[in-house]
Amino acid sequence: MGRHVLRRLLQMIPVFVGATLLIFLMVNVMGDPVAGLCGERACDPATAAQLRREFGLDQPVWRQYLTYMAKVFTGDFGTAFNGQPVTELMATAFPVTVRLTVVAVLFEVVVGVTLGVVTGLRRGRPVDTAVLLATLVVISVPTFVTGLLLQLLLGIKWQWIRPSVRAGGFDELIVPGLVLASVSLAYVTRLTRTSLAENRRSDYVRTAVAKGLPRRRVVTRHLLRNSLIPVVTFIGTDIGALMGGAIVTERIFNIHGVGYQLYQGILRQNSQTVVGFVTVLVLVFLVANLLVDLLYAVLDPRIRHA
Amino acid sequence: MRRSTHARRAACAAAALALAATGCAGAGAGGNGGAVLSSSWADPQNPLEPANTNEVQGGKVLDMIFRGLKRYDPKTGKARDFLARSIETRDSRTFTVRLKDGWIFSNGEKVTARSFVDAWNYGANLRNNQKNAYFFGYIDGYDEVHPDNGRQRADTLSGLKVVDDHTFTVRLNQKFSGFPDTLGYAAFAPLPRAFFTDHAAWVRKPVGNGPYTIESYTKGAQMYLKKWDRYPGPDKARNDGVTLLVYTDSNTAYTDLLAGNLDLADDIPAAQLKNVESDLGERYLNTPAGILQTLAFPYYDKAWSRPGAEKVRTGLSMAINRRQITDTIFRGTRTPATDWTSPVLGAAGGYKEGLCGRACDYDPGRARELIEEGGGIPGGRLTVTYNADSGSHRQWVDAVCNSINNALGDDRACVGNPVGTFADFRNQLGGHRMTGPFRAGWQMDYPLIQNFLQPLYYTGASSNDGAWSDEEFDRLVDRANAETDPARSVALFQRAEEVVRDHMAAIPLWYQNGNAGYSERLSHVALNPFSVPVYNEIRVG
Amino acid sequence: MPEQPYEPEGAIAGTGMGGAMDLGASEAVTLEGTPGGGPGQGPAGRPRSLWSDAWRDLRRNPVFLLSALVICFLVLISLWPSLIAPGSPLSCDLARSQDGPAPGAPFGYDGQGCNVYTRTVHGARTSVTVGLCATLGVALLGSVLGGLAGYFGGVWDALLSRLTDIFFAIPVVLGGLVLLSMVTSTTVWPVVGFMVLLGWPQISRIARGSVITVKQNDYVQAARALGASDTRILLRHIAPNAVAPVIVVATIALGTYIALEATLSYLGVGLRPPSVSWGIDISAASPFIRNAPHALLWPSGALAVTVLAFIMLGDAVRDALDPKLR
């Protein structure tokens, strides 16, 4: 087990380097950010040149990347154009987004798995068809439409919620979390359902039923445990995607989180912000994947890591 | 008063988020807590140094915490002496500035001649990367302190001399009679010693001499400005403070205003304008501001600088149904433009209604003729470039194109060309990569006709993105700047403007208003000609 | 990525990864053991039996028939939109801004005074093109790379797995914002290219896992023992049996690409005028949700129905291809 973890950690290194390099190149291709700093006029050439020097933009890209990475390992993520250290931006942005992600994942787990179990056990019944259809509709409407619609209805028409998030507490994040989770939630439902329906027919479940175990015990101890493996995989890898993919949700609901900072960073072509945030997101993604991997061993005794 | 409690709680909660949590005690608690209003904001793009702030959001704050030599009247926009007792000149080149007594910064330090001279030297110095440095470009010695290339040869402007605590002189490198009137711009604000001695601390929490002091500032979230009780000026704050709340999107701010979570939203998105009357009724402001939207052209492209192209440009101008667009898309928050300045200047200041003449009237028939006479649209198709990341640019560009298409009877004559980010848009402009007209918005820095013409059309000027150049125009502007008599100076500028018209150097579209909506708690809300709310006049409750 | 090269369990673990674009991929997990899995079937000799079984099933499945009908209709109006909507989608009159239904404009007019009906019908072409081309590109690139990695294993597999991880680690919307914000082309190709670039790892993982499973079957070993070349084994024996999960995931992904195009438009980096697409119309109408909901409703509805049709088609195909669920 220890060796396996070590090997996995080593494998993370090339992925980390590759992903950060990729995003670094992408942001750099966007062009010179200094031009956007002076409002509706051209920056005077002397100031522009000096700003470029200060942000290291006059260096070749590979050297910029190396300098940047060297600094990252000392905990220095650079400075945003408004003079704020990127680490400071992260300190305000990540807590909110983590809360939002927690809400979203909770929705996925609680609502998604429950619906999946219900439909999986009642395959072909009206409730199954209804839920299945509902998930399809959720998947096929773009998130920003769902978000704007919920904001208009719940926030303005019926005044059930605040249309925008202020402090970023859990109570305010329920609806945004639901919007963020909606598509994944639909997948979790369908995934659980499929997985459950399939495992119901497997030998070990038949054996358990034949042994005369109570239905409840069969479902929770045998069926659910095995059926959840693909679901856990999905949710584990979804965490990274949720955090980085919150750009739309955060914009609609005025959440000053990671997605908002990334969006601002891209609009202002602030490579330091964008690369810094993505670096952290890549780390989150890698760690989540590792955890999921280790969880397999717990959920499925057949899988043993050498 | 459900609304008021909401807003107060919101301000408080936001302050709790601010970790510093200092704002909460001031805003939410205490006997006078109720008189604090919340207002929508967006994160300033640059550190809040006066000479480094070039957009409205940072300008909002500077307007609250700084007072300069001059101040533009919030109603008329006229420049009035404020900290200056007098600014005198005999030759429009050397100015003697005398300060009033009794002004202090909120940290107790006196405002002296040195506070100004040091601040201006700092702003002009290349080493400090101040993005508004060129504002000091008229002062003698600027090219030593801020050379376009090569090494910097001096640290201070040779044109600035401190005479005594309350007097200093400014010598310009050319005659510029309008110079005193530019001094109300934020870049010319005085700075306390603390700015220079502990710069990092100052930037975290700026200290100025205006009616408010910054109580807490959490970048990216909010700023709480408290009324400064010892403020020596005549325009004391009529409320106890302002909480500026950062919104990701102006639409969200507006929905928050409707839900009673926000007191003042000062940039109502075009999409909501149809609802403001029913949503807000009287609590809606639509005030002229010194903003003009135009379509500029790339004169570095031969297709647009060839003889006859001015006929095409004039034709295009006549193909745009300005009235319909301002009514339908902007719901009266824009007014069709008939000259190249702004009504906020007033007739005496140089605004001349109808200077554009027939060239700005909608006349599809004549438009078709002119475009044909001028040799048709270069390349057969017009692309209008704009940045798609902010404002409602996309809506009006599409509308302008549809108007041109309908006038020319060709569905594909004109098409919008959105650029993803403002930075990229500026890059493309700077790199002279336009092939057709592009969005050119101009918000005045100070209410002078000079500010609407020289930066935009003078050869090589900083915002002359289309690289338009005309000797006669340049000559007239030079003469106007040297002219000491204001009326004659304005007349010369207007003659220069006629040159712009005759070549249709840029198509004027509309004058933009500032607009805002506010909650029932507020009264005496107004916008100044820079479309910024006059915070100190607002009453709460 | 969780799995090790050469670890059979890896095939199970390797599929469900991915970001927002990884739609339905995990559901395909269940498919991997299927080709040739039924008792009494001689898979090597009759590789087509699975497909003919599936086809028989599908013909009797109302969900499949309905979605196929919708898709046929969509393809038809994509090819000849003027059949049901004469007039130009680019002809707009601001005087009619946000007007309700009128003769010739059953869906009313949008903010610019364009005919919503005409634009919705004409928008089908772009949206369907984007969906089809992106899916085709993703499926081709992904299954070739994933298949080769799965078949040859070793260094190539390790390299490709890391490469897949790298692309997965980049949030899709973010990648779109960065990459597409610089595009100036008015065609659909930059958007399609971006989707292929960030979408292929999803298919590649599934193809790889699928190939690894199929590779271990007796008939492949037999073919190899008989001296068949790699190319022959891959094309004749492995590809037909490993392709089912790819088809399923690709069909479902198609719908999501169409929806993604709309999200990109909302963020200002999608297709560009004068293209007519549902994404452009939805994002243009979304600020006016209070005043002119009809301008938002119709293109959104068309988009939802299309996505729905493709996902249901994918669902039906999966059910048909999975003998265990029969």
UniProtKB/TrEMBL annotation, chain A:
SUPFAM superfamilies, alphabetized: MetI-like
Bilayer-spanning residue ranges: 12-31, 96-118, 130-153, 173-192, 223-248, 274-299
Domain ABC transmembrane type-1: 94-296
Organism of this sequence: Streptomyces eurythermus
Protein name, per record: ABC transporter permease
Record localization: Cell membrane
Keywords: Cell membrane, Membrane, Transmembrane, Transmembrane helix, Transport
Gene3D superfamilies, per the entry: MetI-like
Membrane-topology descriptor: Multi-pass membrane protein
Coiled coil feature spans: none
Family: Belongs to the binding-protein-dependent transport system permease family.
UniProt cross-references to Pfam families, sorted A to Z: BPD_transp_1, BPD_transp_1_N
